[in-house]
Amino acid sequence: MKLVKCLLVFVYVTLFSVSGFSQWNVVNSNEGGVGSYFSNANTGYVVGGTTMENSGYVLKTTDGGSTWNKITTNSYGFNAIHFPTADVGYAVGWRGIISKTTDAGATWTQQRWGTSTEILKSVFFTDANIGYAVGIIGPKILKTTDGGANWTEQAITGATSTYSVYFIDANIGYIAAGAGRILKTTDGGTNWSSNWDGINTGDLYSIFFTDTNTGYAVGVDGKIIKTKDGATTWTLQTSVDNTTELYSVWFTDANTGYIVGDWGLIMKTTDGGTTWTQQTSGTLIGLNSIFFPNPNTGYAVGGSIILKTGSGTWVDRSESTLPNEFQLLQNYPNPFNQSTTIAFSVPTRSFVSLKVYDPMGRVVSSLVAKELSAGIYAWQWNAAGFSSGVYFYQLQSGSVALTKKLVLLK
């Protein structure tokens, strides 16, 4: 177990300069998700859910994130969403689920139901009828040519998992895959070539191309790679450290791009990835998706938070600011399988305990029992040896006792 003191807002972080001002503001602190898509600066969608049936949901805003309407479905949880037109959209997720809307998200019809082990991670349509979905268990690449009425599996070699699909045009597309693999097609998915990035074998979670030849991929161990020759060769850019996962990358033009990842990490480049600056997100919640409908407006989505930039309101975070109260955040992810992160804040130097209890009130794990300085902390609980079920975790210091519920789902 490892305790990490996250000095996100008052100390310079190794390898990155922290922006003195942040243009990221919380627009939803109650719900978030995994995937996102924004048709324009005002209209957008966020999807999420769990491995449980009827947990899949779609959050929709039509006023730039000021309000969100939650649309529940009879599906398992969603991991990604894409709209080829203003009204027609597709969402994919657990158990190989593919759902479609033809009324701008008001209602959703399930098109495909896979096996209990299938997990679809990404979806991309080149027009209203032709689209692709990729996943890490079960079919690696699915394609439709009739608006999702039928999906066929495409043959590939050299990739054990596929995480993210992106097409430049109707013919040229790329997929970020496991073990440092990049897949490429030049004939609309009829054939896929598999290339190793030549750097390491870590999984790649997200891919984005700014033109036919120039693209970026990010993944495990803070890995950022760039190609200038259409994925023939790749060069390693800046790595945060060997523990930070990077989940999503987006570029607004040839030079300006953003990356999000664990611990509320948001990075920005204005020189085509030569240098990256860490922005202050103001959260410890892992961010899963980033999307810019235009160069000035962007959204970052985490498990229980949605952030927005481009509102024109700058938030000054340049001064050292310590927390002013004890606070216990909801663990993330939740539900989780094997490991989850619990974050909390300590306003003054205090003796702090953090314990996990079973439903009978018995202590099953003591995570923290020591004196801590004022700051923001995060603790990872590895529950590999515990049974599935509901547990409770409590932060205690003096007369303060804060408790929340978590769910272990194996």
Describe this structure in words.
- This protein has strands spanning 3-5, 21-22, 24-28, 35-38, 44-48, 57-61, 69-72, 78-82, 89-93, 98-101, 109-112, 119-125, 131-137, 141-144, 152-153, 162-167, 173-177, 181-185, 193-196, 204-209, 215-219, 224-227, 235-236, 246-251, 257-261, 265-269, 277-279, 287-294, 297-302, 305-309, 315-316, 327-328, 339-346, 350-357, 363-372, 375-382, 389-397, 400-408.
- By secondary structure, it is an all-beta fold.
- It folds into 2 domains: 15-316, YVTN repeat-like/Quinoprotein amine dehydrogenase (Methylamine Dehydrogenase, Chain H, 7 Propeller), CATH 2.130.10.10; 327-408, Macroglobulin (MG2) domain (Immunoglobulin-like), CATH 2.60.40.
- Mean pLDDT is 86; it is low at 1-22 and 311-321.
Task: Summarize this structure briefly.
With 410 residues, the chain is mainly β. 0% of the residues lie in helices and 48% in strands.
β-strand percent reads over 45%
Mind telling me which CATH architecture of the largest domain this is?
7 Propeller
CATH class of the largest domain: Mainly Beta
CATH superfamily of the largest domain: YVTN repeat-like/Quinoprotein amine dehydrogenase
Q: What distance separates the N and C termini?
A: 20 Å
Shape: globular
Number of strands: 38
Q: Which sheet architecture does the biggest sheet show? A: 4 strands, antiparallel
Q: What's the assembly state of these chains? A: single chain
Count of folded domains: 2
